[in-house]
Amino acid sequence: MGKYAVKRILLMLMTLFIITFMCFVLIRMLPLANLPLGDPHSDVILARREAAGYNKPYLVQFGIFLKNIFTKGDWGVSDVLYFGQEVSAVFVSKLPATIIVNLYSILLSIPIGIILGILAAIKKNSWIDHTISTLTMVCISVPSFVYAFVIQYFLSYKLGLFPFLMKAGTDWFSWKMFVSMLPAVLSLSMGVIAGFTRTTRAELTEVLTSEFMLLARTKGLTKTQATVRHAMKNCMVVVLPSIFGEFVGIMSGSLIIEKIFSIPGVGQLYLNSINGRDYPMFTMLVVFYTTVGLAASIVVDISYGFIDPRIRMGSKK
Amino acid sequence: MKGKKFLALVMAAAMTMSLASCGDNSGDASGNSGNTENAGDSGNTGNTESESSSEPESQSGGETNADTRYIYKDAVNLLASNWSVHTYRTADDGYPVDYIASGFYDFVYNDEYHPVEGMDPFTGYTIVPLMAASDPVDVTAKIKAEHPEYGIPESATAGFAYTIDLNPNAVWEDGTVINADSYVYSMKQLLDPKMKNYRATDYFDGDFIIAGAKAYNYAGRDAFFEVAAAAESIDDLTVGDDGFYTLSDGSAVYVALTDGLEWLGGNTLADYVNAYGEAYFGVEDFNALQGMADENGHVQLNEETLAHIVGVITTVADWGETEADAVNYLVYGVPFPECDYDSTVGLFKSGEYQITIVLENSLSGFNLYYNLAGPTWLVKEDIYESCKRFDGDAFTSSYCTSVETTSSYGPYKMTEFQSDKAMHFVRNENWVGYADGQHTYVDPTDGETYDMYMTDEIDTQVVSESSTSKLMFLKGELMGYGLQAEDFDTYRNSEYAYATPRTTTFFFIFNGYLDAIKEREANDGFDQTKNDLETMTLQSFRRAVAVTYDKELFASTISPARKGGYGLIGSAYVYDPDTGAKYRDTDQAKQVLCDFYSVNTAEYSNLDEAVASITGYDPEAAKELYTQAFNEALEKGFITDNDGDGISDQSISIEYAMGDDPNDFMTKTINYLNEKMADVTTGTPFEGKIQFVMSANYGNDWDKKLKAGMSDTVLAGWQGSLLNPFSIIRLYTNGTDQQYDYQWFDASKISLTLELEGESITMNLRQWSEALLGSTVKVGENEYNFGEADADVDTRLTILAALEGQILQTYDYIPMLEDASMALLSQQVFYVVDDYSPIMGRGGIAYMKYNYNESEWAAYVAEQGGELKY
């Protein structure tokens, strides 16, 4: 497994390098933001472009880009959105809010989703199953911003249970911060809960009808024992990787939810940076999320081995 | 087993936390405002906690901690990210500046402490020193003699140089002294050619031009500017012996291929050609130019290159441009030699607490004070130096991008900042204004004396959705809420609703470019047996449209904050800042409206009543005019009536130039226009034959389409300088592409004769408007100049009104709306003065008073059931 992991990591680095190079060149090929004549900022941006090697061949530009990252940790300076500020500093300052809101959302969604899925599977074709399945479909179909407005109106405005917006400050783990995040967390969770419910129900339903479950019952196990000891374990082979997948997506912010609840996260950065042609920011985001995506695929693949010992990664036998 | 236990633990924790939080009713339901009572928790009033940076005072003898602070809770759509006075770009970025900076002088209401002769308290204003210690002293003669390098004109005797004694009590928030060196250092940094600061142009591109500021700022490089701003056409350029074109001052002229041009909405010609190629442009000519371009994308202009650029824009007729438009693709270069600050820039230290400012143009009186009343260019030296970063030639500064890199010398100081989230200010106890004795006033209601700036803290947070703002406002968590269209029915008559007028008058511009219309009609896809566009160029038709719509009803239907617009120059414009007198209130301006709307003033006891009778809506007159237009159109062959039923065979489809995708406002506008048009044309030859249709989304090109006659109408307007109604008139007469109808209306061909001071003067409209703006215009042997310094204000008003009347009579512009906004103000606060003043507004945060402190407010909101009624 260790050898396999090292091999995957090396492959990942190579893939990352290739993707980064391709993205870098493609981004540098995009039309540059227009610089108004006589605008002093135009001169500053032109000088920066010169320093970044914009008039040189792409390979040289890429070399300058890598050199700045590895020697100075310099990902560049924002041209448009946060004029003059280092893009890495801006991104890092925004990441915690996104991560924490997503983390709470996942922590809330996983147990609820799995429990509902199990319940629906065990009570298959009963009114409970039908209710859960219907609600699941509704939750998956309705976009999260609709929940956001409904939650804000009823829970924050009418009932006064929560603040309208996420609390300002960086006390990420304070109780007040947690409470202020809950409307956003609930809005984000609806779809995730529904997703877990559906996956769990489908997998568990299949497992529960397997022959080995019949064998377990004939051995004398109760239905609960058989479900918990055997069915759940097999069901988790599919469910757990999707949980890992959710954790990987933790660093991607939701554009709409972050906007509605004034979450100072990274959700809007991606779109704003490409719309505003803030290429230093966009390049850094592309590289970062590519890295995260590649790392996630390794983690998910390796996790199969831990979840189900029958799956042996990289084994030649 | 371990896995199961862990899973169970996580589930239990998550469930417990969510349930516990749902049941929590602690006092922070207000979110970021931090310390207001949860509106739904009436049982807990008096138990609110403060989490904010400053501690609430304890109420003696009470069981609870009462929060006695006055906190202004504001919401913004976009939070500032860079508020350095040297580099900020947008109004959003400039938001904190008013709180953390001050001007040399301050405008305050007139009252017992600041009396103005002949004016009732709080009806005018006075100017008091703030960062300055006294009024500026004119030293023009002295500086002219001692410093010829600043180039003060020989004939000048006043208005070009001033010394300002600085207030020795002015300090930064940490107590650091602000003296003459601080100002000189800051100006040096602002204008430093290496730094290329965005705000440097504030000191050489407006009214307030510091001598040598531009020369130093551009030192050692060529600067390029658009030719269209300096010359109206290619004919205005000079051809040198070498065959290259120059401006009259000798500056070389170039074709700009890769510069963002105003004519192209900030895009470059190369962008357009690359995007549309041969569909719109002469690509061969463009390639030829590209082959000759230097590293800046410039090609020096001579006959050959001129022919190429003309070829680029005229080869394909669909681009809709002529040779005359070539001037918009040209730039000129100005070389600026190396120089140093001390011998170039007219701002220097003349004493420990005294600076001298030398100006390139004379400035005095109100305009001088007005320019010195805004935030100064000061930066705090130690922080500023630590924030500098140079990458090769590129300068970057992180000054004023965080709390640590910000220092205040204004009434408030920043204590918290979170990017894209919130910022918080508290009172800057070291602000010079709190102790100068000038910032107190006598309340017009109770006669008591109060200090200005009752607000202790300002809490600003980002609220992107207006629906969220509204809910927060109704919960008492915001101080104001800007009304949206859907709110007007509910709130427009609220006693807490405040309207704020703007300068823009929105008018319909009607396509009168007959040549372009004929071209459109000649296109294959246009069926002339069913459709017609030419009729809309008839004045009778335009006059009919002008009286088809009730302007007040139009305003209340599509944009209730606004009101009906009747003239080209809105009612907010002030012509005399000293008295606040408005142009629209003058007899000249009233008479223009009466003439334009055919109001017989003899039927009214005075002009005010006559003007008040104007609605702009006269369906009977409109019907007659539509019939008249029908007959004229038949006569000219624009339309037919082959079946002889008295109804036009053709429909007139008026294309509305869209600058964006259709939205609620546009849909309402078009629906309203069509609905009323259908009503009024009933029974006329155009019954059911006229309709407005939305164009495709032209983006930033909407005005270009309109000016080229390729689209037919739009609701647009000019935002002018509130205190100068005279300057805006040139936008209707100057004949450049700024003028919407410049392709079909030539103001230089329309004569106007006025009797002024016993003399009958005849000039064309363009000459009149130029003379009004201070240019000397020669007519025959006579020279005329009606600028501010050369003519009395009554004469100028007469000229302005006459020009407005003449332009209205073209019916190219049909005034429809006057811009305004309306907002609700929280019951927690009130303005000392309700009436809006163009100079003072309503006094801003300096004059804002509180009905309740934070604890009282929380109790009040709870008492109201947690939902306030406005």
Largest interface: A-B, 62 and 77 residues
Instruction: Note the overall shape of chain A.
Output: flat
Gross morphology of chain B: globular
CATH class of the largest domain in chain A: Mainly Alpha
| Integer tally of domains of chain B | 5
Based on secondary structure, the structural category of chain A is mainly alpha
Any guess at the CATH architecture of the largest domain in chain B? 3-Layer(aba) Sandwich
| CATH homologous superfamily caption of the largest domain in chain A | MetI-like
Distance between the termini of chain A: 13 Å
The percent range for helix content of chain A is over 70%
Number of E-state strands of chain B: 36
CATH class category of the largest domain in chain B: Alpha Beta
Report the average pLDDT across residues of chain A: 85
Structural class of chain B: alpha+beta
Q: Biggest sheet of chain B: strands, sense, closure?
A: 5 strands, antiparallel
Question: Could you provide a short overview of the structure?
Answer:
The complex is a heterodimer of chains A (317) and B (870). By secondary structure, chain A is mainly α. Chain A has helices spanning 2-29, 40-51, 58-72, 87-122, 127-141, 144-158, 175-208, 211-218, 223-248, 255-260, 269-275, 279-307.
